[in-house]
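We modelled the chain as a single entity of 390 amino acids. Its sequence is:
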Amino acid sequence: MLKDLSHDLRVTPARDERTRQEFVSSLRKHVLADMAASMRANYEQRVLPAFERAHGRAPADGDEVHDAMQDQRYFRFYSSIRYNAQEMVFRSVIPMVDRNLEDLNDRVRARPGKAVLNPALKVPSNVTNIDVHLTPGSYHTEYQPDDVAAGAIYDHSINVFAFNQMGRDIDDIGHSFANYVRLAYPDFRPRSILDAGCTVGHNTLPWAKSFPDAEVTGIDVSASLVRYAAARAASFGLPVRFMQMNATNLDFPDESFDVVFSSMFLHELPLKDIRAYFRQAYRVLKPGGLFLNMELPPNNRMQAYDRFYLDWDSYYNKEPWYKPFRDQDLPTLCAAAGFAPGRFVEAVVPRYTYTPEAEFKANIERGARFGSRTGRLGEEIEWYAFGAWK
């Protein structure tokens, strides 16, 4: 059963809405767990042996696995169900948000939090030209003055999308890496933290909880997301500042932050924008500061089938820059932005809010280990992050 969000901007679904959301969430879990396991078994038992007979070797990469799988009936069935389940997530949430939108907008006006908007900011084409993740209107569309529809839809749809696997308030990624930093580098005491591409601040607020003496800022290009994020933070009693800003052109002085963080952000950017953001992150980091990005693991660290599986979104889920990012050599990306090659860091960690802290810390001490659970949403998912010290 889905857990309701715990903050003051949550919308309580009507009975039929809740039933629909429960069904869609269960369907997504079935697709990503049971159907995905059956598809892998089909590959190992049929597709892989046939490929090896034809080529005298196993597939070299995810592209070859994808080519071999495209004619498989089960892969087509899996992809059709997964695509439709993604659309159903939004169909199950949007009517509920629409029904409550005026009330939501009033709630945000009454308790706006620390929101800094920039009406002159041009929302980039990688957001405006694509319904990212099949989200109708993407993440920027506004329907009335001071609108928070995009923020509310994102918040409540992720709750359905993740089938209770991303934390009580969809914030486990933030908790996992804020506490990774706290435990892995106990002498590091960040006083200023930036979360780039923060959407509604799911993974921003855990930094304020883990480092209560730090000033925490989240930025996003969408005014709706910024409004919603600031009010959401205020409902938790956290003085986090949210600003409408493009991460490729940060409006902060040099050496402003001890940590520059992002989560599930880079794969939404064209490579030119990733490179621009990395240069900006290097510029605004203080000497000795940490650049850290939670993302899907890079293809060069994964087995061929896992590369194929994780790249599905790039082909079928309106995420065209997903695979080009995952094909990059990440130390090289960091070095090109100015980070010293020997300062590169990466981590693979279990979910902090589901794992005893002693076990979480022991996992950190074992170092980054990549496997079929890395980056795959489910009950045993492991999160991946990389970056560098300045």
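As a brief sanity check on the tokenised model: The first strand starts at residue 114 and ends at 116. The mean pLDDT is 95.
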